[in-house]
Design a protein that fits this description.
disordered C terminus, 5-stranded mixed β-sheet, disordered N terminus, 3 helices, 558 residues, mainly beta
Length: 558
């Protein structure tokens, strides 16, 4: 969901589910000789038969949560109404089901062992054939991530997939995943595809993905972003643009055989849109620009030097353009009806359908993509850190956006607990976790905390065997790039919160224990028959030095 990056706290909290996966074997080895109390740490999921009809048998479908993960792109087929796809960073791809306003997951045929394929690097539609869709998959390019990414093709709108012969490291959960697109089908020739990689240059296929060759005429890019945008000019056959994020925009007029850098092109370009008469619009780290007859024009709303990302052009009116700033706070959307010469800031009003979404989530969306619906110019969609929004009246001000989350279940789960009563409690990345008070088929009413943080992870949860309503959980909160660990107590009843322990005495158990960030924790709560209260935490500091913590004498009546 979020990727660890020391220079960016917003994306930098988690080094990776991948890192935790790599350490799983080491965890088991390190703790295999622990006493019986410590072995409880590895009881990650305690399954009990539900006693309530609210809970259906496990394994039949996803638990209803209501979004919570980053949706990095949205795509519309120009020849088929309501054929819409979304891309996510760690939750795969989805297709819109207009019949019941829900999202159909398209990656669930991949088993857990292939969870690397849940990372969405890119998606491309064949403009001529509605049934054909391509996806580029892979979570990380780092050396510690052992898995290669690849490209899959579907000829039935994502119901089944065929792996193609291109294996490269891909970074669906890495920086600039909110920009794009890296994968594209030539609108004049369905056999011709291009893919821009992060670390391995530009690749081309001339047989609908069956085989790929590296484009040697494109400059070698040596950074972690690589080529983050490729766009065909649908008005000029053979014209294609490619963005090397830290270098600039390159143009080819011979379908990618040769490339020249566009003079004076901005760097850190995020997205490209092409209007009629081959006018090129771009969003970048310093604003919004357009290229008209080889001359750049600064059309940034309010002329402020601020990062913009999402951009879309009305397919029915090429002068009708929408752009959005990119940032954690004060996200702004601007609308122009004359090709960017004048902008109107569009205020937002949220018609929120998910009760637990916090005010921060609604007011600071960090928009990844905005797209006009090609079949209804008043309908516009946008995606952000948590889900998908749509308005059916884009000309209204303020614009009313409704979130459509049904079927989009994209949270990263650290722990699950099923209490003797059958109630499910989840510990999640970013959105903290839930007491699923409404069953498995309805969104939970709120997060675990009464005052949820903007971003908070729950690493582990355990409950007292004698008094199962009494629980303890381990959480972390990002403060700049640091992580603090807290130990609150929960009473599992609607409306009750997690008060923190008033005093904690720490006993060092390992010579390696240092005041350093903790990336993985497990927890066990034990109440002996003599009333002794013990909370045992185990985890790893980074690099991979083992550590163990014990907490005694909590001073709180469990």
């Amino acid at each position: 969901m979020r990727f660890f990056h020391v220079f960016n706290s917003r994306q930098g909290k988690i080094l990776g589910i991948g890192f935790i996966a790599l350490l799983t074997t080491f965890f088991l080895q390190f703790y295999s000789n622990s006493n019986q109390t410590d072995r409880n740490i590895f009881q990650q999921i305690s399954v009990a038969r539900p006693s309530s009809q609210l809970y259906s048998p496990l394994g039949e479908k996803n638990v209803a949560i209501g979004g919570g993960g980053y949706v990095t792109g949205i795509y519309f087929h120009p020849k088929k109404r309501d054929l819409v796809y979304i891309k996510t960073d760690v939750g795969g791809f989805y297709r819109w089901n207009a019949a019941n306003s829900s999202w159909i997951p398209l990656n669930e045929q991949f088993p857990l062992a292939e969870s690397n394929y849940y990372g969405g690097e890119a998606l491309a539609l064949d403009p001529k054939y509605p049934n054909i869709v391509y996806i580029a998959v892979g979570k990380y390019t780092a050396d510690w991530w052992q898995h290669q990414g690849t490209i899959f093709k579907s000829e039935d709108q994502g119901k089944t997939w065929k792996k193609l012969n291109l294996d490269l490291k891909m970074g669906g959960n890495e920086p600039q995943r909110w920009t794009g697109e890296r994968l594209v089908v030539n609108p004049f020739d369905s056999q011709n595809l291009f893919f821009g990689s992060r670390k391995d240059g530009l690749w081309k296929s001339n047989n609908a993905g069956k085989s790929w060759v590296k484009v040697k005429s494109f400059p070698q890019i040596k950074d972690d972003i690589g080529i983050n945008v490729i766009t065909f000019d649908q008005y000029q056959k053979g014209t294609i643009y490619a963005v090397a994020h830290h270098d600039g925009i390159y143009k080819s007029t011979d379908t990618g055989e040769t490339w020249l850098k566009v003079p004076a092109s901005p760097t850190e370009v995020n997205r490209i849109a092409i209007g009629n008469q081959s006018v090129l619009y771009i969003t970048h780290a310093q604003g919004v620009s357009k290229l008209v007859k080889n001359a750049w024009q600064n059309i940034t709303p309010n002329k402020n030097k601020i990062a913009f990302n999402a951009i879309t052009i009305n397919p029915k009116n090429p002068q009708d353009i929408i752009v959005a700033t990119y940032g954690d706070t004060s996200t702004e959307i601007f609308h122009s009806f004359n090709g960017g010469n004048k902008w109107i800031e569009q205020k937002r009003q949220a018609n929120n359908t998910v009760s637990w979404w916090s005010e921060y989530m609604k007011s600071n969306p960090s928009i990844a993509a905005i797209e006009f619906d090609p079949w209804n110019p008043q309908r516009v969609w946008l995606t952000d850190w948590y889900g998908i929004w749509r308005t059916d009246n884009i000309d209204r001000n303020p614009v009313v956006w409704t979130n459509y989350q049904k079927g989009h279940e994209e949270v990263v789960t650290f722990t699950l607990v099923s209490t003797p009563s059958g109630a499910l409690i989840s510990g999640l990345v970013d959105v903290e976790g839930f007491y699923h008070d409404r069953g498995l088929n309805t969104y939970p009413s709120k997060m675990l905390s009464s005052k949820p943080h903007d971003f908070q992870d729950t690493y582990s949860i355990d409950f007292c065997q004698k008094q199962s309503l009494r629980m303890v959980r381990v959480v972390e909160v990002v403060i700049t790039t640091l992580i603090t660990v807290q130990l609150p107590v929960m009473v599992v009843k609607p409306g009750r919160s997690f008060p923190r322990f008033p005093r904690i005495k720490w006993e060092r158990e390992s010579q390696y224990l240092q005041p350093i960030r903790i990336y993985s924790l497990s927890l066990s709560v034990v109440l002996s028959q003599y009333g002794q209260q013990t909370v045992v935490l185990r985890g790893f500091q980074f690099p991979a030095y083992p550590m163990a913590l014990r907490v005694f004498g909590i001073g709180h009546n469990l």
